[in-house]
């Protein structure tokens, strides 16, 4: 069997590896004393369990059930971190888990959210956010080198069975120690004497166990290394602090909702009178990314955001998410060549994307087309403004709309936020996240300058008489969404211009014409021929939004570092999402919430570096 498919695909496990496997889930739970420890997790707190091989997920599912039974009644989060070199396919996972009907209440949700077979880190948000699974597909040792997390309890197998691949136990123990803190417990089932001795040598002091149902060869221990680390190393961020989120676009609303679900009190501030009023205020927005021909870190981040967003909107998008599928049209010679090279150099699962002919594309979209392209079956379009409003309806979110922030200042462990009408702080919070799009630089304290750009984007509304009856999103030089609205009042949205120089806040005829010309060049049959050259119909409407991007066109998400590389404690940035905000925002909101709360992060360090805030400082150029 070929063990090295073209990235980003990964070889699935063979079902035979799991035929005789006996996963001692209850032993792991009992040896780590999880029922009692789960009950002690505080409001807005979290507990982290990790294992070194996911297998068929039985250990995770049993832990999830234990969390349901013994976990706190208030808001708290169970994190489970696991890796697998050769994961089961969704179909095989469903077959394996069908043997344990007692797990049906949790296994069905795992199967429904199970990621496509793509190497890398996958974050699954389950049980309404009270359970978060970080599942890493690929080399186990590399997997545990990259994510940032500290563990409360380990489930450790000696990795002798075939499903784990060829793994060096000593390397496994090294990674376990890296992610452990004083007091971390560990349970190893089926551990030979040499493996147990190595664990004790590494600092895990053996704990005697008098439970008769625990099989011989089991080991339980607590991490007490001789060279005790400082008290702050591995310590979780205190729970229950307050957070202010500035900006109620899609990024800010997703982040505020994420933090509130974890049990944190959030103040959401915006100068507009309602959520989703600026760049996130369009009637429709396409959810897509353009994956690079080369599978580099930029492409990996885009793919991670795409697959996470598909899972997120399917569960949380409600009536505002329309999973129609999306066609990236090979609309001219350059794009046809790019897509040819993309297919030659990459291997993607069919449930992520597939190359389709013109005939197939016409069947999928219901449109008359000139060419085929790349079909993304899990994509679609959103009603972003309505979604933003829905996300802010939560008892832990206090909304302060019609409120501008003039200045912010740190005071002890708090941040003070001032409005233009007073010299006393109107808002105090322990953490502040700036999500204000292209206005973010105006809010960042200090005197530095930043490499952000404002992009004027105008969308065009096609009224029902002009809108075609296609049923999926079509994108290329522009995107065209299916018509939507009440019968007789439907309209479709063409988006959007990309203007780095204009600051005009209202729709212009020239921008409408630019949108229609681009659409006509992409899909000639979509518009009457005269529309691209003659006067536009009076009933043609539209909207302008200013998106924020960066010098390298990659988002910014994480703790704020000043120009000297010093972190401003409690201050974070989350902006620069450009024209792909609907796709990037769910994953990056998850990632920023992880950082704010001190929980395991949804992204590996290699991708987190691409989002780092320090790169946004404009270098000082000495005058000659």
Distinctive features:
624 residues, Rossmann fold, FAD/NAD(P)-binding domain, D-Amino Acid Oxidase, Chain A, domain 2, eight-stranded mixed beta sheet, 27% helix, EC 1.5.-.-, oxidoreductase
Short structural summary:
The chain is built from 17 helices and 28 strands. With 624 residues, it is an alpha/beta fold.
What is the radius of gyration? Answer: 26 Å
Based on DSSP secondary structure assignment, what is the total number of beta strands? 28
User: What does the oligomeric state look like here?
Assistant: single chain
Separation, N- and C-terminal Cα atoms = 63 Å
- Please give the CATH architecture of the largest domain: 3-Layer(aba) Sandwich
Strand order of the largest sheet: 3-4-2-1-5-6-8-7
CATH level 4 superfamily of the largest domain: Vaccinia Virus protein VP39
pLDDT < 50 stretches: 159-166, 230-237
Count of discrete domains: 3
Measured by DSSP, the beta-strand proportion falls in 15-25%
Shape: globular
Protein name: tRNA 5-methylaminomethyl-2-thiouridine biosynthesis bifunctional protein MnmC
Region (FAD-dependent cmnm(5)s(2)U34 oxidoreductase): 246-624
Region (tRNA (mnm(5)s(2)U34)-methyltransferase): 1-237
Main location: cytoplasm
SSE layout and pairings?
Layout: H1 25-31, H2 34-39, E1 46-51, H3 58-70, E2 77-84, H4 90-97, H5 104-113, E3 120-126, E4 131-137, H6 140-145, E5 151-157, H7 169-178, E6 180-189, H8 193-201, E7 204-206, E8 219-223, E9 242-246, H9 250-261, E10 265-270, E11 285-287, H10 297-316, E12 321-322, E13 326-329, H11 333-345, E14 354-356, H12 358-365, E15 373-376, E16 380-382, H13 384-391, E17 397-401, E18 407-411, E19 414-418, E20 427-429, E21 431-434, H14 440-443, E22 452-463, E23 473-475, E24 479-480, E25 491-495, H15 509-522, E26 541-550, E27 556-561, E28 567-575, H16 581-597, H17 605-608
Parallel strand pairs: 1-2, 1-5, 2-4, 5-6, 9-10, 9-21, 10-17, 13-23, 21-28
Antiparallel strand pairs: 3-4, 6-8, 7-8, 11-16, 12-16, 13-15, 14-15, 18-19, 19-20, 22-25, 22-26, 23-24, 24-25, 27-28
Helix pairs in contact: 1-3, 4-5, 9-13, 9-16, 10-16
